[in-house]
């Protein structure tokens, strides 16, 4: 007969996370989501707990530059990762996406805003790398930041207040500025 230990220590794992530039060593239950590790264990409040089911995107952060829905990810799977929250984007001033959200009034209650901002930053990076989406028409060229393209890429984030027009305007303005900047650099070569 196999004997099982009643100790919960066998279900705990030490992990290391760098959050907004600060390294943390914690031990988590193997079932702990990255969201709960960030909020409950590390007191990171710029990551919001919305639905807990991956439907709203309010818990979105950037991990090594890629968008991650933290409520769907186990913390142990992110051992050694570098996590950037909306707060971590604002080093020495607001990130261009954050500034655009303010300029275009892309928030109302603000609950979804950290996730929206992180998602937009990750999405803009995908665009700059030429990563296509399901609505990208021309796969041999870098995707254009059309409204359809931006809506598709931001579709993992919900805003219950309905600030979508402002969000789209803000993200479009940054995407256009990035594209113009890239075009200017190419013309200088």
From TrEMBL:
CDD domains: fer2. Keywords: 2Fe-2S, Iron, Iron-sulfur, Metal-binding, Oxidoreductase. The keyword Cell wall biogenesis/degradation does not apply. Residues 13-89 form the 2Fe-2S ferredoxin-type domain. PROSITE patterns: 2FE2S_FER_1 (PS00197), 2FE2S_FER_2 (PS51085). GO terms for molecular function: 2 iron, 2 sulfur cluster binding; metal ion binding; oxidoreductase activity, acting on the aldehyde or oxo group of donors. The keyword Iron applies. Pathway: Alkaloid degradation; nicotine degradation. This is Xanthine dehydrogenase Fe-S binding subunit. The lineage of its organism: Bacteria, Bacillati, Actinomycetota, Actinomycetes, Mycobacteriales.
